[in-house]
Specification:
about 240 residues, alpha/beta, five-stranded mixed sheet, two-stranded antiparallel sheet, 7 helices, 7 strands, about 45% helix
């Protein structure tokens, strides 16, 4: 089956990238070791996220020309109600005189569009901890101001938020107490969390080290594809 071949290609890519990062970092004399590791893992997670979305779309029968990954950026404008609260009249007048310059560019790691409409945003991480989750949720909150109908995902290789997000064989994922508490503060945002590797991240056991390498299993990729399909089916 073509879809199965594509999944196996993702696993082969994972094996090649993760097993090759260590030597690449050692050989790179222009960048710090840790920087090379983080960059390679980050780029890889973005690449396989796009491949998983394509597989999900194709399995649903979607036409390939309708799905795209152009990373559109938009600018979040300064809120008038914020300006009105500023006590200093000089500062207020300065902002109003230059108001077109007061903005913040919004985007996430992977933008998935159908018919040129952004429908899914995915934040891609080698691992996620709760401090990082707070930033992700704020970014998606900003995105929903500009794309109100966007579906928000976090796709991570390993879990570092506690709980059972990396126990992928379980029928029900209960999550972690801190994570649920953080998520509960964002009333209008539903974040779907996808983990690809079994077992939580251990700082002293990085997966790019041969002794701690983790296999990326086909069934785990299938779980991710199925979660994407539940959203993409609405746009056929």
């Amino acid at each position: 089956m073509a879809e199965n071949k594509k999944i196996l290609d993702i696993i082969a890519l994972y094996n090649s990238v993760i097993k090759g990062i260590e030597q690449k970092a050692i050989d790179d004399i222009n960048r710090a070791y840790g920087g090379v590791i983080r960059a390679a893992k980050g780029t890889f997670v973005e690449d396989i996220t796009k491949l998983l979305l394509i597989i999900a779309w194709e399995e649903l029968g979607g036409k390939s020309e309708r799905i795209s990954f152009l990373k559109e950026t938009r600018k979040l404008k300064i809120e008038t109600k914020y300006i009105n609260k500023i006590e200093s009249q000089d500062v207020k007048e300065h902002i109003l005189a230059n108001i077109e310059d007061f903005n913040f560019v919004i985007k996430t790691d992977v933008h998935c569009s159908v018919d040129c409409e952004l429908v899914i945003g995915v934040e891609c991480k080698a691992y996620t901890e709760n401090a990082m989750l707070k930033r992700i949720l704020v970014d998606f909150t900003f995105m929903k101001k500009l794309w109100p109908n966007i579906n928000c995902f976090l796709l991570q290789l390993e879990n570092f938020m506690g709980g059972d997000y990396s126990e992928l064989s379980k029928q029900i994922t209960y999550g972690s107490k801190p994570t649920h508490t953080i998520l509960s503060q964002f009333d209008d945002l539903n974040l779907e969390i996808i983990t690809l590797l079994e077992g939580n991240r251990h700082v002293e056991r990085p997966i790019h080290k041969e002794a701690f390498f983790k296999e990326l299993e086909e069934k785990n990729l299938r779980l991710a594809i199925d979660k994407f399909k539940k959203v993409l089916i609405k746009y056929l």
